[in-house]
Design brief:
about 850 residues, mainly alpha, 39 helices, 8 strands
Length: about 850
């Protein structure tokens, strides 16, 4: 019987196959390029990042891009740190006398790390140590030993925290970019649509694998498709690739919209991972459980308490809110550092510590389980109330820019603190929050959330009987009225709040909170009491508060502009501009410049207006006052248009429109203003069809706004429609009747509100109608518009042309006499004249 042949020994160090990815590589091309660049310059590169972010997958892409050998060592199954070196030896095929670690070793065999170093000493390979975090000390020690003994070996490690050895280069792996909340689909600016984000691309790719034909549906203006839902899914899951892949499985049975709605309970839903994956990668909860188990007790305490911060926390906030009962003040910084190292938190350049929403949701469960929710949230609310009350007066000083940035960074935390206070029905504290945040909300110009919060606070009831509470109720009601202080819906509540404020202040209104003080003239304006409004501004002009002293002439000037007192208004606003500059208030400076630009534009001083608006827009951009940016940009477009620079006007208008969309202000005053400017620009470009369509769209938008505040816009849109008809040339009796009907409606609408500028603009357009048959009447109407406005509008689309034609037809003397007759008319007489021409029976 022949002897059994001996099995030949294997060739030395033949690398096993690197795990072949079964799915496409999406969204990490730049990360891969950076990793290869770092690997070319350093011998140890550690991929760090939270669980499920794709560190392993990124590392697995490297071998295919290398000329030499790469060894992939999976450390996830290793439970004993002493087994790390044996896992590497086994992966490289370096066998000892027995499989695994022998119970007792002697000689060369007693130093397995030495055997590994000897085997790799002359090689020019890359060693990939995957999932080091649970055996971090052993992995770091082994990597240091190999790098020291093997000068040509390079190592890639993946871990949730650095190895912390000499020569290590870190390559943080972040979640995939996802669409921000403000991005609007399909109307977002180019590059901001969902298809441009790697997280959405990954979701579509994995969705197509389980549901053939699935993809991004771009939609239309009337049907947004599935872009919004896909964006929401990726946003909810923080762009974490593993979470997205777990979610994509559900696209077999759920639409994107249905899946997005169910992700509030993400841990229960995302459980269907690949059976071939590691157990801790098969469910989203298992991913986070793994990270949680790696934390020390102080780190766990801090992490669960930090979960109450939706916008992340500064070191000061973490120390004041989270310390105590198991976490000493001095231990907070060390715990923060450990959490950053372990990829639970990310540290930003602004010294803020951020937590992924998925991790935050998990940690909030831990906070509830520890019985600490109320205690921590109370501390959180107290901290942010103090911050808001500290910042509020400084927003009306030269420190305005700094504190706007501070509050903007903390906005989500401030709102979360206020919501908690509301949920606990702590009326006094909630009112203090709104009193402190009211001016910040108004400066930021972001409608929606602040109004909702203010209404919820008002619904809690009256609260305390202090002056502070009375001030807060006025501010709260103003914010609830919306960014334009549209008081019709809150008039009764504002009246009651102001009565209480007057009582609590002893009638000394010049010394109350400045924003509460502004509520009184707002109500008086709504109640058509101009004398009372002007009297209030005289009181505020001698206030002890320098900001209120500056605001008094500004708002008095604005009101005089509304009343057609242009010369007095310009003097007031110039005074306010100097005062705002003196105290360093950038917002006040910006809005005063806008008002002065409007007045300069009445004189057709385009260069002066453009310079003022450009400075105003620059200040608004520095402040982040987005609503103001859109409106100022629209005014720049209007001035350039009336100066004849139609291309510049179109560029300004489109930029302002993008700003309005990006900030979600599509229904705000700035967006309505932009619609009016767009209609006038189309008119100037000679596209009457587009101009009419813009007017119709604007009127449709305004149809949903019931307050008289908006009637000035309605009046001007109606007048522009009439002007479009008049510009068509020869008109039949039916066409003229339609023009008169539009102008009558425009005049009636404008006259319903106290603002006189829109009324004057309508009268200018009525003069266009009169000029066709009666130049003398047209000249008188121009004079009547001057009387109403307080000035001739030299930049108007209508008035200069009518003036030139009437002067040509009548001669200078007859024109001036007719014009002066119009100027001599009072407001009601001017309305009567214009109404007769337009066919509006004011007595009917």
């Amino acid at each position: 019987m022949s002897e059994r042949p001996a099995v030949p020994p294997p060739a030395a160090l033949i690398p096993p196959a690197v795990p072949a990815p079964l799915t496409s590589f999406v969204g990490r091309e730049q990360d891969l390029a950076l990793l290869l660049k770092l690997l070319a310059a350093a011998r140890l590169v550690t991929l760090t990042g939270p669980g499920g972010v794709g560190k392993t997958r990124l590392a697995a892409e490297v071998p295919a891009r290398l000329d030499g050998c790469a060894w992939f060592v999976e450390l996830a199954p290793v439970t004993d740190p002493a087994e790390v070196v044996y896992a590497v030896l086994n992966a490289l095929g370096i066998r000892g006398p027995v499989i695994g670690r022998p119970p007792a070793e002697s000689g060369a065999a007693a130093d397995p790390a030495g055997r590994l170093a000897a085997a790799l000493a002359a090689r020019d390979d890359v060693l990939i140590l995957d999932n080091c975090e649970h055996v971090i000390e052993a992995a770091a020690a082994l990597a240091a030993r190999v790098l020291a003994a093997c000068p040509r070996i390079r190592i890639i490690a993946t871990s949730r925290e650095p190895l912390r050895i000499d020569g290590e280069s870190l390559c943080p792996v972040s979640p995939l970019p996802f669409p921000p909340t403000a991005a609007s689909w399909p109307s977002a600016a180019p590059g901001r649509a969902p298809a441009g984000y790697a997280s959405v691309q990954l979701l579509c790719d994995r969705g197509a694998a389980v549901r053939p034909g699935f993809g991004l549906d771009a939609g239309t203006a009337s049907d947004p498709g599935n872009g919004d839902a896909l964006a929401r899914i990726c946003r909810t899951l923080d762009g974490i690739p593993l979470a997205i892949e777990l979610a994509a499985v559900w696209l077999r049975v759920l639409s994107p919209a249905q899946l997005a709605e169910r992700l509030d309970d993400r841990f229960a839903l995302l459980t269907g991972g690949s059976r071939a994956a590691l157990p801790r990668h098969q469910t989203l909860r298992a991913v986070v459980d793994w990270s949680w188990e790696l934390l020390s007790e102080p780190e766990r305490v801090l992490t669960r308490r930090l979960s109450v911060f939706p916008a992340g926390a500064t070191l000061a906030a973490a120390e004041q809110v989270c310390a105590g009962d198991g976490l000493q003040d001095a231990a907070v910084l060390a715990a923060l550092s450990g959490l950053v190292d372990k990829s639970i938190l990310a540290a930003t350049e602004g010294e803020r510590y951020l937590m992924l929403e998925t991790v935050r949701a998990y940690c909030q469960e831990q906070l509830v389980a520890a019985g600490e929710m109320r205690q921590v949230r109370d501390a959180f609310a107290g901290y942010y109330l103090k911050l808001a009350e500290k910042a509020d007066p400084l927003l009306r000083t030269a420190e305005q820019r700094r504190w706007l940035r501070e509050l903007a960074a903390e906005q989500d935390n401030l709102h979360a603190a206020l919501r908690w206070t509301i949920s606990q029905r702590n009326v006094e504290m909630a009112l203090r929050f709104v009193r402190a945040l009211g001016w910040y909300w108004m400066l930021r110009g972001q409608p929606g959330e602040s109004e909702t919060l203010s209404r919820e606070v008002l619904a809690l009831g009256p609260g305390g009987d202090t002056l502070t509470a009375a001030e807060a109720r006025v501010v709260c009601t103003l914010v609830a009225a919306g960014p334009s202080w549209d008081v019709d819906g809150v008039r009764s509540g504002l009246s009651v709040a102001i009565d209480e404020l007057t009582t609590r202040s002893g009638g000394n209104l010049a010394q109350v909170h400045p924003i509460a003080a502004m509520g009184i003239p707002v109500l008086a304006l709504a109640e058509r009491e101009p004398a009372r409004v002007l009297a209030l501004f005289e009181v505020y002009a001698v206030s002890d508060d320098p900001w209120l002293r500056a605001a008094a002439p500004f708002f008095r000037g604005m009101f005089r502009t509304i009343l057609g007192e242009s010369d007095e208004a310009e003097a007031d606003i110039s005074e306010a501009l100097a005062a705002y500059r003196a105290i360093g208030d950038a917002w006040g400076t910006a809005v005063a410049l806008v008002q002065l630009a409007d007045l300069a534009e009445l004189r057709a001083e385009h260069d002066t207006a453009i310079a003022a608006l450009a400075e105003s827009e620059s200040l608004a951009a520095q402040l982040g006052a987005w609503g103001d940016i859109s409106q100022v940009g629209g005014k720049l477009a209007m001035v350039r248009m009336r100066a004849g620079d139609l291309a510049g006007a179109r560029a300004d208008l489109e930029r302002s429109h993008r700003n309005s969309i990006d900030q979600g202000n599509v229904k705000a005053e700035s967006a309505v203003w932009l619609g009016l400017v767009a209609a006038e620009l189309c008119w100037c470009e000679g596209d009457m069809t587009a101009a009419a369509a813009q007017c119709a769209e604007l009127l449709a938008t305004l149809a949903g706004k019931e307050s008289l505040w908006w009637d000035g816009f309605r009046a001007q849109a109606l007048a522009r429609l009439a002007a479009i008809e008049l510009a068509r040339g020869e008109l039949g009796p039916g066409d003229l009747a339609r023009c008169r009907a539009l102008l009558a409606e425009a005049l009636r609408t404008g006259a319903a509100w106290v603002e006189r500028l829109p009324v004057a603009a309508v009268i200018d357009t009525i003069a266009v109608l009169a000029q066709r048959a009666d130049p003398e009447l047209a000249a008188t109407l121009l004079g009547a518009a001057h009387s109403v406005r307080g000035a001739f509008d030299g930049a108007s689309l209508d008035a200069p042309g009518v003036r030139e034609a009437a002067r040509r037809d009548l001669g200078e003397a007859r024109f001036e006499a007719a014009y002066q007759r119009g100027r001599d008319l009072g407001y009601e007489q001017a309305l009567d004249l214009a109404a007769r021409v337009a066919g509006w029976d004011r007595q009917g």
